[in-house]
Amino acid sequence: PIDLAAWLLAAGLTLPYAIHRRAPWTALTLTLGSLVAFSLLHYAPYPGISVFVLLFAITLHGTRKASVTAYGATIAAFLVALAAQPPGVARPADWAATLLAATVAWLAGANVRQRRARWAALEERTMMLEREREERDRAAVTTERLRIARELHDVVAHSMSVIAVQAGVGHHVIDTDVAEARRALGVIEDTSRSSL
């Protein structure tokens, strides 16, 4: 009959899931201990759904080594729970289905963990490529600005040289050749407007 101990063991089978992220080994130990005790006391045929869910979650959130250890411990606990059943309760199909369900829960958790890790790696690579593209764009803008500054410097320097030479010519001939001084001032005017 179901008594207080059965309810406590049922709680021990299910409640540890709440702490599986912070304390996976405590959760697994409590759950597997409750599973074995539930089976040894013959309250009902061994319950397994909560154990499968916990194995999936530990595999999903843990490392590969931790998931393999959890899988091994779960299989061992199920073998004890199945062996503890009265004759005729655990048939060969139950053994196979239990081991298969535990394996599927473990493989599903590992698969989802790997997909999440791959997705995170892709997102990180995308962000890195975006940063590299932004750096290349900044470098291209800087290079273009430097090219423009050099060209501007060259144009202004050449124009100032022409203006200086023509101003010197105009100053030299202003008293003797007014037409030549006027031409020099015209060149100065055109050059300064063009460079401006």
Summarize the structure.
This protein is mainly alpha-helical. It has helices at 4-14, 24-40, 49-61, 64-83, 92-173, 178-195. It starts with a helix and ends with a helix.
The 3D shape can be described as rod-shaped
Give, in order, the helices and strands. HHHHHH
Strand count, sense and barrel status of the largest sheet are:
none
Number of distinct helices: 6
Could you outline the blueprint of secondary structure elements for this entry?
Elements: H1 4-14, H2 24-40, H3 49-61, H4 64-83, H5 92-173, H6 178-195
Helix pairs in contact: 1-2, 2-3, 2-4, 3-4, 3-5, 4-5, 5-6
What does this structure look like?
The structure is a single chain. It contains six helices and no strands. By secondary structure, the protein is mainly α.
